[in-house]
């Protein structure tokens, strides 16, 4: 197997001094791949030189991923301290005392005694039963509330105090929500995980994060071509088919996927692409260490932004919400 020397991968410094890799691997099987398949890819990715992994309780595979972490440690392929492991508290565990239980469960399943980064997955306690109708609304779903979020965040802060997590982060937030929450934080988020790809660049949120010393982590960095049906809508753009991206990929003799990776890392946010295929995940890592995009190419891509969100989160809508744009404070 080809290996990329981890020292060649760009590194990013967090506001609390931690240093993490500038690219990682996602672990959500998009309802297409089994926990075993994803875990096997994580094992391969560690051998290939990946040092950052984006996990979550909601992905239903932390136990399997924990097994391969254990194998990698016991075989001496990597040491725990060399990995940056992230996980997230799911929406049904925001209640009093629940965040500690959720974190302890993720730690047990992943076979770890600390997490590097623990995030609040969504800023609502809303969730959907598996298999529920796409347009169905959960009658218990509620809109964002500062009080509810801060109750969850206070528990996140305690996890740092307890030494169970090295830093805490947020996900799926907007500037509107951050403006309300950041002044209330005793321990501020080091990262914000949101959708970012060449067709949905979120320039205002990116600049906001920079100004507040929060590192953006980009989910769906390739435009999630295989996302679950619940996140698709007629008329959605196909990131890989963005003409400017295709043109630049042609000039670099590579798949548009690799240009998405170069663009992300050169822009300065951290992409966490998912793939279970060895050639793809090794390619995604290797490409950020060589054959860089020129300033002109970066500018062409910047101007190609379509401002079209792919992961809309419709299943988290509450009764009375107009449409999915309410989840994002109609900022798009
Ligand atoms: N915080 C959140 O709410 C949230 C939401 C969504 C995702 N995430 C995280 O972000 C990660 C990535 O997001 P994602 O899976 O939605 O989207 P993505 O990484 O943009 O897209 C993944 C898909 O891209 C294709 N791909 C990957 N590398 C490729 C390559 N080198 N060449 C060609 N095609 C390639 C693969 O398709 P094939 O399988 O067909 O090859 C793969 O299934 C997830 O695994 C998860 O960890 C977080």
TrEMBL record:
One of the Pfam families matching this protein, by short name: Aldo_ket_red
SUPFAM superfamilies in the record: NAD(P)-linked oxidoreductase
InterPro entries for this protein: AKR, Aldo/ket_reductase_CS, NAD(P)_OxRdtase_dom_sf, NADP_OxRdtase_dom
Domain NADP-dependent oxidoreductase, residue spans: 22-304
Active site (record annotation): 59 (proton donor)
Gene3D superfamilies per record: NADP-dependent oxidoreductase domain (3.20.20.100)
Record-given protein name: Aldo/keto reductase
UniProt GO MF annotations: oxidoreductase activity
Residues binding substrate: 121
Highest taxon above the source species: Bacteria
CDD domains from the UniProt entry: AKR_AKR1-5-like (cd19071)
Residues under site feature: Lowers pKa of active site Tyr: 88
